[in-house]
UniProtKB/TrEMBL annotation:
This is Amine oxidase. Topaquinone (TPQ) is generated by copper-dependent autoxidation of a specific tyrosyl residue. The active site is at D345, Y386. InterPro entries: Cu_Am_Ox_Cu-bd (IPR049947), Cu_Am_ox_TPQ-bd (IPR049948), Cu_amine_oxidase (IPR000269), Cu_amine_oxidase_C (IPR015798), Cu_amine_oxidase_C_sf (IPR036460), Cu_amine_oxidase_N-reg (IPR016182), Cu_amine_oxidase_N2 (IPR015800), Cu_amine_oxidase_N3 (IPR015802). One of its GO terms (molecular function) is primary methylamine oxidase activity. It comes from the Eukaryota. Keywords: Copper, Metal-binding, Oxidoreductase, Signal, TPQ. Residues 1-29 form the signal peptide. SUPFAM superfamilies: Amine oxidase catalytic domain (SSF49998), Amine oxidase N-terminal region (SSF54416). The lineage of its organism: Eukaryota, Viridiplantae, Streptophyta, Embryophyta, Tracheophyta. Residues 72-81 have a biased composition (Basic and acidic residues). Residues 176-275 form the Copper amine oxidase N3-terminal domain. It is an enzyme of class 1 (oxidoreductase).
Length: 661
C-alpha cells in the first residue's frame, strides 16, 4: 500500500545561513571548502568531536541492517545531487560562478556581487512524480546579483550553461540582503569619517575601544526611496565582553551600501552617559562566587542500540514511520519537504491512547506503555545580538511541532536615568515615555516584537485540498428536550476564497483549522486531514499604514490560505529590504482567489511581544512558543499503537539501592 503522505515546505525568515552561504563575489576566489570541512584540521576538529559526542558516547558496532555511515573526512567537492530538491553542490556553485563571469552583464568587470545563489526548484509536479533511481529534472540555479546600483534576477541552467534573464534590472521597490563583504565594509566605514572620529575622541574615548555594526534602516520617506541605505550603531567594548550593554546613545550613521559612503553622522546623545560595564559580563568565570548556585549533577542520556534515525544521500531523513527531505537555505534557514508518514494499517479505528492500566477487566490485565518519542531537527541562527532556535519536532503519533526559541542579548538604549524613581512626570502624573524598561543603571530594554512566518504546502493525500474553519458553538436545548440548557457542537465552514481563509485568532471564537482532502476518506467516511493547533502567539499592534507594518503586512492575520503559486514564497515579498510593502502576502491575498479543492498553501505566523524585564539582563533566558500540525482523521486509528512497548530487557532497571536525581 502506498504511504499516506503530505509535503511540508517550511520557510522561516532568518539570517544565519545568509551570512554563511550567500557571499559569492567574482573578485574573490573561493576558499578551500575541503579545508573547512576537514576534521583533521585542528581549527575545526572540535566541531567533529562535538558531533560524535552527541550521537555516540562510546564507539559501538554497527548492525548489519544499518546503512554504511559517512566517513569523518567527507569531501564535499565530490558531492553530487541525488534528489530533485537537494541544494546546489560546491561544484555546481563554482559552475554558476564561471558561467556568469563570462556573461555580458558582468563582462565589463563593473562592481558586482552575487547576493544569493540557490537551487531553482523544479516544477512541483516533477518533484512529486520523481522516484529514486530516475533521472533528476534539469538542475538550475536562481541568482540574485547587484551590478552597479541595479538588482538582477537570473536563472542558470547547470547542464547547458544557458542564462535566462528573469528580471533585469529589477524595478520593484526593495533591495536584496547584504553580503558578508558589505557588512564588513559597513562595520569599518565609520572609522574613515572625520566627524565620527572627532565625536568619539572629544569625550575622551579611544577609537580602539569602539565597535560598530549595521542594522536595517527600513523605509520611512523620500530619503530612502532610491538609495540602498543602512544605519550603523556603535558600542563601547571596554571592560566587558558584552558590548551590547554599552551603547553610545544618540550616535547613528547613515551609510550607502552601493557607494560605500557615510551620508550622515547624527550625535544627539551627548548628555547620556555610556552605561558601566559592571555586571554585564555573562560568562560563568565572571559571575561573582556568591551569586553562583549549587552545582547540579549532569544528566546523561543515550540509546544503547544506537540512534533510530537514518540519513540517506545527505538529505533524506528516515525515522520511525517518518520520511522527509531536509536542506539548508540561505534565506529560509531550513526547508523540510516531501514529508511522508508510512501507515501500514488502515483497517481499524480506536480512540487515542498513550498509556493505560485497566483494573476492572480481570480477564485481560493491561499494564503497558507505548513510547511516544520525538525526533528533533534543530537550527540555531545567531542574528546580531539575538539567537533564534528553530526546532521541528516529529512525533510517533503523526504530529509535527514547529517551535521557535528566542535567546541572546537585548538591543538596548542608553538613558540618563539610573533608577525608576528619577523618571520625570507631567502635571497629570504621567511618566515620561521611555519606550521600554530600565534594566540597569543607564540602560533601557526597548519594547519590541518578533514574528516568524511558516509557509505550509501540506498536500494532504494529494494536491486538491481545502481549508476548513471548524467553529465550536454553544447550542441551546429546546424546552423539555433535556435537563441540560446547552451543549457544544462543531460547525464546519469550508473557505471558498482567500478572504475566507484569513484568520485572526481569538479566545472568544474557539475554532479548529483543518486542511482536508475531501476526495480521500477514512473507512467510516471522514475526509483525511491535518489541523493547525495554535499555541501562544502575538498579533501586531501597529497601524496598517505604518511603514514597518506595510512591509510586515503578513502579520495582519495569524493564518492565511492562498492558492499555490511558485512566485509567492516569501510573506514579506521577494525583495523585503527597504520595500514599500507592495509585494507581500497581504497584497496577493486581496485578489481573493478560489481555494476550495485546490492546491493551496497555508501560512502561519508565530509572534512574540517582548516587554523586557531585569531577568533579561545582561543575557536573556530562552523564551519559546510553537504550534502543532496534528493528524485529523488522517489515520484509521491511533498510529502510535503500531509501536511495540518497552520491556524490562530493553532498558536498564534501577535497583532498590539506586539513588536518582
Amino acid at each position: 500500500m502506498e504511504p499516506k503522505s503530505f509535503r511540508l515546505f517550511l520557510l522561516t525568515t532568518t539570517a544565519c545561513f545568509i551570512l554563511i552561504f550567500t557571499s559569492t563575489n567574482f573578485t574573490h576566489a573561493p576558499s578551500s571548502m575541503t579545508r573547512i570541512f576537514d576534521c583533521t584540521n585542528s581549527s575545526f576538529s572540535h566541531l567533529c568531536t562535538t558531533r560524535n559526542f552527541l550521537f555516540n558516547k562510546h564507539i559501538r558496532p554497527i548492525p548489519k541492517n544499518n546503512p554504511k555511515p559517512n566517513p569523518k573526512n567527507h569531501d564535499h567537492l565530490s558531492d553530487t545531487p541525488k534528489h530533485p530538491l537537494d541544494p546546489l553542490t560546491l561544484v555546481e556553485i563554482q559552475k554558476v560562478r564561471s558561467t556568469l563571469s563570462s556573461h555580458a552583464l558582468f563582462a565589463s568587470r563593473a562592481p558586482h556581487a552575487l547576493h544569493s545563489v540557490v537551487l531553482e526548484e523544479p516544477d512541483k509536479n516533477l518533484v512529486r512524480q520523481w522516484e529514486k533511481g530516475n533521472a533528476l529534472p534539469p538542475r538550475k540555479a536562481s541568482v540574485i546579483a547587484r551590478v552597479f546600483s541595479d538588482s538582477h534576477v537570473l536563472t542558470v541552467d547547470l547542464s547547458t550553461g544557458h542564462v535566462d534573464i528573469v528580471d533585469s534590472p529589477v524595478r520593484v521597490l526593495g533591495f536584496p540582503v547584504m553580503t558578508v563583504e558589505e557588512m564588513s565594509d559597513a562595520t569599518w566605514a565609520p572609522f574613515s569619517n572625520t566627524k565620527f572620529n572627532r565625536t568619539i575622541i572629544s569625550p575622551g574615548l579611544n577609537l580602539t575601544d569602539v565597535i560598530c555594526f549595521p542594522i536595517s534602516s527600513g523605509w520611512y520617506g523620500n530619503k530612502e526611496e532610491t538609495s540602498r541605505l543602512i544605519k550603523i550603531q556603535c558600542y563601547l567594548t571596554q571592560g566587558t565582553a558584552n558590548f551590547y550593554m554599552q551603547p553610545i546613545e544618540g550616535l547613528t550613521l547613515l551609510y550607502d551600501l552601493d557607494t560605500k559612503q557615510i551620508l550622515e553622522v547624527s550625535d544627539t546623545g551627548r548628555a547620556i552617559p555610556i552605561p558601566s560595564p559592571n555586571n554585564t559580563d555573562y560568562r560563568f568565570a565572571s559571575v561573582p562566587t556568591l551569586d553562583k548556585i549549587r552545582i547540579l549533577n549532569p544528566i546523561s542520556m543515550e540509546q544503547p542500540r544506537g540512534p533510530s534515525f537514518v540519513i540517506e544521500d545527505n538529505h533524506l531523513v528516515k525515522w520511525a514511520n517518518w520520511e522527509f527531505h531536509l536542506k539548508p537555505d540561505p534565506r529560509a534557514g531550513l526547508i523540510i519537504s516531501r514529508v511522508r508518514f508510512h501507515d501500514p494499517d488502515t483497517q481499524e479505528t480506536t480512540k487515542r491512547k498513550q498509556r493505560h492500566t485497566e483494573g476492572k477487566n480481570r480477564r485481560y490485565p493491561i499494564r503497558e506503555v507505548r513510547p511516544k518519542l520525538t525526533l528533533v531537527v534543530r537550527m540555531v541562527a545567531s542574528v546580531g545580538n539575538y539567537d533564534y532556535i528553530f526546532d521541528y519536532e516529529f512525533e510517533t503519533d503523526g504530529l509535527m511541532r514547529p517551535k521557535v526559541g528566542l535567546s541572546g542579548i537585548l538591543m538596548v538604549k542608553g538613558t540618563a536615568y539610573e533608577n525608576k524613581n528619577q523618571v520625570k512626570k507631567d502635571k497629570e502624573g504621567n511618566e515620561e515615555e521611555l519606550y521600554g524598561t530600565i534594566l540597569s543603571e543607564n540602560v533601557i530594554g526597548v519594547i519590541h516584537d518578533h514574528y516568524v512566518t511558516f509557509y505550509l504546502d501540506l498536500d494532504v493525500d494529494g494536491l486538491d485540498n481545502s481549508f476548513v474553519k471548524v467553529n465550536l458553538k454553544r447550542q441551546e436545548t429546546k424546552p423539555g428536550e433535556s435537563p441540560r440548557k446547552s451543549y457544544m457542537k462543531a460547525v464546519m465552514n469550508i473557505a471558498k476564497t482567500e478572504k475566507e481563509g484569513q484568520i485572526k485568532l481569538s479566545l472568544y471564537d474557539p475554532s479548529e483549522f483543518h486542511v482536508i482532502n475531501s476526495g480521500k476518506t477514512t473507512r467510516v467516511g471522514n475526509p483525511t486531514g491535518y489541523k493547525i493547533v495554535p499555541r501562544a502567539t502575538a498579533a501586531s499592534l501597529l497601524d496598517h499604514d505604518d511603514p514597518p507594518q506595510k512591509r510586515g503586512a503578513f502579520t495582519n492575520n495569524q493564518i492565511w490560505a492562498t492558492p499555490y503559486n511558485m512566485s509567492e514564497q516569501w510573506g514579506g515579498g521577494f525583495f523585503t529590504y527597504q520595500s514599500h510593502g507592495d509585494d507581500t502576502l497581504a497584497v496577493w491575498s486581496e485578489r481573493d482567489r478560489d481555494i476550495e479543492n485546490k492546491d493551496i498553501v497555508v501560512w502561519y505566523t508565530l509572534g512574540f511581544h517582548h516587554i523586557p524585564c531585569q531577568e533579561d539582563f545582561p543575557i536573556m533566558p530562552t523564551v519559546s512558543s510553537s504550534f502543532d500540525l496534528k493528524p485529523t482523521n488522517f489515520f484509521e486509528r491511533n498510529p502510535i499503537l503500531q509501536a511495540s512497548p518497552y520491556f524490562e530487557r530493553d532498558l536498564p532497571v534501577c535497583g532498590t539501592e539506586s539513588v536518582s536525581a
